[in-house]
User: Fold these one by one.
Assistant:
Number 1:
Amino acid sequence: MNNRYGTLASWVYNLDKPVGRSFGDIEYYRERLSSCAGPVLEPAVGNGRFFVPMLEAGIDIRGFDPSEEMLDYCRKACSARSLEGRLSRQTFESFSYDASFAAIVVPLGSFQLTTDVAAAKAVLHRFFDHLALDGRLMIDLDAIGGFLGEGGRVRSWTTEDGDLLTLTDTRVSTDYVAQTTVTHLRYELWKDTKLADTELELFSLRWWGVEEFAMALREAGFVDVVISGDYRYSEAPAKGCETISFEARRPQ
């Protein structure tokens, strides 16, 4: 149940982060990807929040996700807009394509779902191997400040049928040595004041130091690493920055 995005979790995600909702990343990457001369890959595509706007912008993008529930939302979003969504169920650790990509983009901290350092570095090598020569890898990471809260929030959403979905997050552990957090996410569906369904997931994340991640990229073979804060290309992250974007290139 770790980082699984089951039925209720995917439903809440789709309500909270619908297709097209931007945190600055959609506009930023639409511009960064506009000059790509080949296909683009989005790992952990989720419900299509980012993927669909890239398709609508004319970008040749494909995507994968380990959650079939999330992929269902993405497929429906593509179908509703008469878009061809080339999607598959795969994981960071084992994804495989015959084609090479001009760019691989992982927005909004999804890479941090891989909490084991060795596994994360292996994923970076896999990204490298799937890029064409001179292809670019683009990854967003959340700054450490987003990991240090205690949790305990209760949030709610009203469904299309007028029912209530709630999410309670409870921090289980923060490991400052391993740079990881583990949170219990309890999802509940309420119909006519009665609990109709519930789902518990473990949500694990790892934070990275800025130079630590840049070194990991170089170790994987990438060059020309550019680090940007809050979607301002090449502006170094500063104190209070929420999102740190890394862009690196596979050499020719």
Number 2:
Amino acid sequence: MAKTAGLVGLVGIGATGCSTDEVLRFGWPEAVTPQADKMRELWTWSVIAALVVGVIVWGLILWSVVFHRKKSEELPRQTAYNLPLEIVLIVVPTVIVAVLFYFTAVTQNYVTDKSGKPDVNVDVIAFQWNWEFQYPDHKTEEGKVVSTVGTSGEVPIMVLPAHKRIQFTLRSTDVIHSFFVPEFHFKRDVFPQPEKNNQDNVFQIDQIDRPGAFVGRCAELCGSYHAVMNFEVRALNEADFDKYIELRKEVNAKTGKPYTTAEALSQVNCGELCAPLATTTTPFNTDRTAREASGAGQK
């Protein structure tokens, strides 16, 4: 019986096609920030602890079913009180909850810590149904803050440096949205007038561990086109990011206007990471004729 159960378990794990690392993450995306690593560790060990408790409970249930099944019409000896057992049933769950609370509090304090001085500040502005990313420490030659806004045909790209501390300040201009990048393992609601709604709308990440492109989403139902509020985080190495920011400040000689995000990225020589348009997600297709009506063309 045990061999069969073990074989079934191994086949089940193998059939998922998951690597050891993926199995230990229990479905969480691969982390790209130190904060995300800490949250993933908390999640992993919490699940392992829950599985251990579950196996013990399942074992006790099975043991009771097998060894305490009805064997005769004689009524078994009735026990009114079992003080040692009752103490165990109180102490063990209390210890488990206390341990989980401790590690949760430690992780939460680390994730929400803002004591470090940020290398880059980004203001994230959410609105129906789009995002604007502003860099308040950088201004164009015209004196305007460098910013990126999405359009109907262009997903907004938030360009950030890898290996630098980044501070995000969030606000909404209409309803509640939610800033979520799965690889950051961190979701933060975006409120209108956060100072009046008693919301902590600022958070930091120690760094993005590696250059890359990561999809971002709104994780709060915010209206009819909530599903189209996607964006992309583009993490570049420090030199490429600095070049990108400098280009965003300058005027494009061809257009007579400051470089847009796409124009600046196309001028930075960093391969696929400098693709002018988002690569991890696409705009919502608003063409009514993009698909045929159900059953069209069928006889």
Number 3:
Amino acid sequence: MSRPVIGITPYLEPVDRDVWRAQLSVTLPATYAEKVIEAGGIPLVVPPLPDADEEWAARVLGRVDGLILSGGADVEAARYGAQPHPAAQEARPDRDVSELLLAQVGRELDVPTLGICRGMQVMAVAAGGTLNQHLPDDVGHERHSPSPGEWSSHRVLVGQGTPLAALLGAEVTCPTYHHQGVASCPGYDVVARAEDGVVEAIHDPSARWRLGVQWHPEQGDDLRLFEALVAACS
């Protein structure tokens, strides 16, 4: 059986490299690619396109077997009809337009998809959903992202009888780093929550395999989500 090709959306950020400073770069933490390789897939980075349209998204998705929408900066609030919160990060319009199109067209084409952190939020917004822009305002603590630049972890409670429970069991402890979350996600089932009620996973019951998680599985040792994605693409 040939190894499926998994497209991964990267970050677009200024990077310091040797003598070069703040060079705008297409970049991705290596752990994303490593997990896809370990799970039996072939990672392929899909850079954002400023003038992306549905034809671009369809052509990209026609050349991969599956898709990972990666983490990163906040989705711009205007994309879901809101004013930005004071704690919101600077928008990445190239990423927003490209990834929202990949999420929308990927859903129409039934491309197996895993959304991670921002990626899950992109899936929700592409479906017409909304986000909680600053979780500490809603849950009263900062345990989802307590220290800048440092991973935290917490328990995630998985809904009984859900496809995610069949894959991961009733409870997992997950690497986490986010200050926003999904408030609504039309067409998706919420299949896991943190103990404080924050949405931690969404699932499309009409899709072959389409799942978003709020945590960062690429930062842990558990390959099951990546293995399930690769299996769905094979």
